[in-house]
Amino acid sequence: MKFQNLRRAAAMAALLVMSVAAAQDSDQALSKRCMTVMPTLAERETIDRNLQSFLASRAARGASLNSAVGSISVPVYFHVINIGNTLAQGNVPDSQLADQIAVLNAAYAGTPFVYTLAATDRTNNADWYTMSPGSAEEKAAKKALHKGGAESLNLYTANPGGGLLGWATFPSSYATQPKMDGVVVLYTSLPGGSAVPYDEGDTATHEIGHWQGLYHTFQGSCTAQNDGVSDTPAERSAAYGCPVDRDSCPGKAGLDPITNFMDYVDDYCMTEFTPDQTTRMDQMYQQYRG
User: Fold this and answer.
1) Active-site residue numbers?
2) Interval 248-287: pLDDT, tens
3) Where are the alpha helices (DSSP H) in 130-274?
4) DSSP single-letter state for residue 172
5) What are the beta bridge partners of residue 252?
6) What residues does each domain of the chain span?
7) The domain 71-214+273-288 belongs to what CATH superfamily?
């Protein structure tokens, strides 16, 4: 009996190791959670100075600095780039696009933003289908497909490959590169897709956070400035999986904000934006997209 119990325990331990290894393999296969190009420290300082000047100007005019919850309707233009008519070829059905909108509105509930479908177009183009950040293919696709103005979210679905899940542009970039504005996501990261554990639609949630002006929670590591938001505890590096009670900056207050949409954790682990993140998104939208 004792031998059988030992065998059973050994089998369970082996299964646990295999499960952990499988999870790690899954994360490594889709390891590039985000390839958004972050502003340099000097650029961030300029962005922050400009924001403070903008807010001071509004305050001097007696204008409100905060928008009401649900008061800003963001039109969403979906651009479905594919290589054929099937889902396996990137031709995401309307039902999945609707589910993505629902995920966004759940994630951004409590913020001023409500996302509404404006239009959907579908383009069969093998070169654009595998575009990468900053590539000629990305520029060509966006130049041809981009719709609306600064207030409009252009959301491109494609198949970048190489473990890349998505990327976005910042609101401060719109004035100089309006056609490049928007978000690109791996089509299998939409709700119900096959990019497990990034298959619940929160790649788009994360990238749109950048589009609204947020940085990663681990931006700047354990430094005082970090992500520029006061109510997200400092975080030394990106978190993967769902590492509860992780504390990578023990000299700073608070555990790592692993449930924040601007970290790199699995979709199921992402659940929140903080009040100060909401304020920053609102202010950046007013400044650059309002």
Assistant:
1) 207
2) 999 999 999 999 999 999 999 999 999 999 999 999 999 9
3) 136-145, 202-211
4) G
5) none
6) 71-214+273-288
7) Collagenase (Catalytic Domain) (3.40.390.10)
